[in-house]
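Case study 2.
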Amino acid sequence: MLKIKPGYDTVTKTLRLPEDMVRELERIARENRVTFTSVVEQCLQYALDSMGSGEDK
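Prediction:
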């Protein structure tokens, strides 16, 4: 399960996301009292961790 936590230093990138996804991410951020960016970063980290090391591919 995704656990929302505070962020750290970042690099700025521009992404285009579907409107419904943005609304859901904003809702999660609001409910957890964190920034939208923090939620997106943590979702991406969760996805990367779930993919594993990539050595088997």
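The longest helix spans residues 36-51.
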